[in-house]
Task: inverse folding
């Protein structure tokens, strides 16, 4: 089994305009999807990320501390997935019901296997 | 790291794999907004809504990954409470909340979210939304938005309106609340205000029941919400005379019992004469009759009571033919005494025809047309057309149906009328 990171991307606060009823449906759909994968042993972890934080970078000899959301698109969470290969990871990702909401982009990245570390 | 992560996931899986009841978020929205408004004031009700929306967003993020907690209500209430306390304590909001802060912060910190408290605060919110200074349209919009947790577009959809129109109604309503400094409490002249609340809820129910909008699910939801709101009134300790509440609830249950049987698969309406009675929901009929009995006890004649009794007569009849039309006619006579409107008299013509014959009903309707503006209503001509049809007056019937078609406003009514016309002019 190989490991993959999935980054859930969207424009800032995509769910802010959903009604309570729609939010509940979102939990039930996406939650069900995550729960299913967890029970199959394919989801190692899935977490939301706070809409706060910083980006640190090094410039001209100093560390610069800037806001994290300079681009319009934000990563609001991640999935840590287990799959046979990239194709299977992609197939699994396609099954995420959040796509029905039309505003999400999910980035699928294999985790590099490095000898001696993982 | 992985091992520890897995263990945590398994532990939380056990605690957090519960289900949410239907419309849970929507119902909780109204409850929590009501409770918070008590602590930040009616003039800040929009802030209360923002707090609850924020709470639900947090719930989504957490619960979709970890599962539903064992006590989802408590999770929501605690989160909302903390968000509210943050706002109350933050300096920049002090000006707005000056008068409420100190005492309410202490109270809020110690709050116990009992069922009784939540019911009481929703009750107050109902009276706030139905403040007499607010127009009926705005009252209903406020109820749906604040108490029933509908979004603006969901409200617009169910009223065949636009987001802009609904938003305007909400803005106007909230403005009236601020202008009149409406406080968050049960009004002193509770009976007067109760009438207004019941009327608003009845309009809400009818919007769901008779709606021309194609979306069936949301229409039924309006009926459910109306029923839920009246139950809050009935369960309250602050309302002494509940006869009208029982009568309205009976009416809604009895009408709702026929909801399923009223519509075809293609969204067209089935008239009562042709409805499959075994599709009528017996449980709802029983609930309706139970509340009807509670309403009758008070021995006070009201419009809701008469309408409910008429509906009950239909519900308990095994077939259209066996319906107790004499009883229904008597009830309509009483109704006309209380509310002599053209529409009431139009509705009365149906049992009148059954009891005294079609010709008598036709004569009544012709008299009604010359005495009022009922001739502008498509249903008048449709009813008259049916009577002519039964008397084999083909040409007069066709004329009436054509007139009805020219006056009808929505597709569903038009479809039904066209069908009737086709029975005469098949091509």
Result:
């Amino acid at each position: 089994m190989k490991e993959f990171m999935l980054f859930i991307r969207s424009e800032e606060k995509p769910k802010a305009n959903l009604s309570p009823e729609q939010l509940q449906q979102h939990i039930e759909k996406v939650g069900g999807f995550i729960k299913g994968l967890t029970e199959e042993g394919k989801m190692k972890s899935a977490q939301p990320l706070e809409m706060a934080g910083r980006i640190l970078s090094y410039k001209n000899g100093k560390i610069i501390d800037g806001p994290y959301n300079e681009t319009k698109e934000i990563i609001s969470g991640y999935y840590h997935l287990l799959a046979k290969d990239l194709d299977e990871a992609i197939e699994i990702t396609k099954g995420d019901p959040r796509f029905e909401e039309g505003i999400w982009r999910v980035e699928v990245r294999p985790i590099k296997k490095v000898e001696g570390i993982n | 790291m992985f091992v520890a992560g897995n263990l945590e996931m398994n532990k939380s899986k056990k605690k957090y794999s519960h289900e949410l009841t239907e419309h849970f978020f929507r119902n909780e929205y109204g409850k929590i907004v009501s409770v918070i408004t008590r602590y930040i004031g009616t003039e800040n009700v929009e802030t209360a809504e923002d707090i609850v929306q924020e709470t639900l967003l947090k719930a989504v993020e957490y619960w979709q990954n970890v599962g539903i907690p064992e006590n989802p209500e408590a999770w929501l209430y605690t989160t909302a409470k903390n968000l509210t306390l943050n706002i109350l304590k933050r300096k920049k909001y002090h000006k707005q909340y000056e008068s409420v802060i100190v005492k309410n912060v202490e109270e809020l910190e110690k709050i116990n979210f009992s069922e009784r408290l939540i019911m009481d605060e929703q009750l107050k919110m109902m009276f706030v939304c139905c403040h007499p200074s607010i127009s009926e349209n705005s009252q209903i919009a406020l109820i749906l938005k604040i108490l029933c947790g509908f979004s603006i577009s969901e409200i617009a959809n169910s009223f065949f309106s636009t987001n802009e129109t609904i938003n305007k109604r909400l803005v106007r309503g909230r403005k009236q609340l601020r202008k009149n400094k409406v406080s968050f409490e049960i009004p002193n002249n509770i009976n007067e205000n109760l009438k207004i609340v019941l009327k608003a809820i009845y309009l809400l129910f009818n919007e769901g029941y008779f709606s021309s909008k194609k979306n069936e699910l949301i229409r039924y939801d309006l009926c459910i919400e109306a029923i839920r709101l009246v139950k809050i009134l009935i369960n309250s300790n602050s309302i002494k005379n509940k006869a009208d509440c029982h009568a309205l609830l009976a009416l809604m249950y009895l009408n709702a019992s026929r909801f399923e049987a009223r519509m075809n698969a293609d969204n067209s309406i089935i008239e009562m004469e042709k409805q499959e009675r075994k599709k009528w929901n017996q449980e709802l009929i029983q609930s309706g009759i139970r509340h009807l009995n509670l309403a009758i006890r008070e021995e006070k004649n009201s419009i809701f009571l008469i309408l409910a009794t008429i509906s009950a007569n239909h519900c308990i009849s095994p077939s259209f033919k066996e319906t107790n039309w004499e009883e229904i006619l008597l009830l309509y006579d009483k109704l006309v005494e209380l509310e002599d409107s053209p529409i009431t008299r139009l509705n009365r013509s149906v049992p009148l025809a059954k009891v005294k014959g079609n010709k008598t009903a036709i004569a009544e309707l012709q008299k009604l047309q010359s005495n009022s503006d009922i001739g502008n209503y498509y249903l008048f001509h449709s009813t008259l057309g049916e009577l002519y049809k039964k008397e084999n007056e083909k040409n007069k019937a066709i004329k009436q149906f054509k007139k009805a078609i020219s006056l009808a406003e929505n597709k569903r009514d038009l479809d039904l009328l066209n069908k009737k016309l086709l029975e005469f002019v098949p091509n």
Notes: The two ends of chain B are 77 Å apart (CA to CA). Chain B touches chain A through 30 residues (CB under 8 Å). Chain B has 21 helices and no strands.
